[in-house]
Design goal:
2 helices; single chain; Pili subunits
């Protein structure tokens, strides 16, 4: 039987545990590691959210560019009649947000999957409405109801247009000499989320 006063037993009991200071240091280090882990996790989540938002903006921008390229490249020299029966120029541009929009024209190449009794031409309009860039289309080339606009981008400001004439000059306002005149190209500038964007689109068989 061991002697309670044995020095070796006393030394073993003294060295078998942690002191209070050691426990406090261990808890402090553990808390630092926990805080660092939370900060790294929060940073990773924020980075992923920012990346997703940026990718969404890029996808919307690409959709806008693709639509405008497809529409303007197939623009036709065809005047049309509005709801009142008045003849309207083939290509018009208005600065105000209402009315026909800042771009309105007739394009060809409309698909007809259901073989409906209609033309392959389609009249489209682009409009800036309270910072939203919208695209509308008409059920028929002359007159006809206008579809519910599709919102392509939001938060747009300072939208500007320039047009390249058949004489090779860039002008800020499109004015037609004849109803079937088309510009050679359209330059679109706008600001979105603190960034400036510029795109140039060929119109019909136009050239720069």
């Amino acid at each position: 039987m061991a002697n309670p006063s044995d020095p070796q037993l006393d030394r073993f009991q003294t060295q078998s545990g942690f002191t209070l200071v050691e426990m406090m240091v261990a808890l402090f280090l553990f808390s630092l590691l926990s805080v660092a882990g939370v900060v790294l996790l929060r940073s990773a989540v924020d980075s992923n959210e920012a990346t997703d938002a940026r990718l969404g903006e890029m996808a919307q921008m690409q959709r806008l560019i693709s639509l405008m390229e497809a529409d303007l490249s197939q623009a036709l020299q065809r005047p049309y009649r509005d709801e009142d029966g008045d003849r309207v120029a083939a290509f018009i541009s208005q600065r105000e947000t209402g009315g026909r929009g800042f771009l309105s024209f007739t394009r060809g190449g409309q698909s007809n999957i259901n073989n409906a009794p209609r033309s392959n031409m389609q009249r489209v309009s682009y409009r800036l409405n309270n910072g939203r860039l919208e695209r509308s289309q008409h059920e028929s080339t002359d007159g006809g109801a206008q579809s519910e606009p599709a919102i392509l981008l939001e938060g747009i400001s300072a939208l500007e247009l320039r047009f390249r004439t058949k004489r090779g000059q860039w002008v800020n306002r499109w004015q037609t000499e004849r109803l079937n005149d088309l510009p050679r190209a359209v330059e679109l500038r706008f600001a979105l989320a603190g960034r400036s964007y510029r795109h140039v689109f060929l119109v019909g068989t136009g050239y720069l």
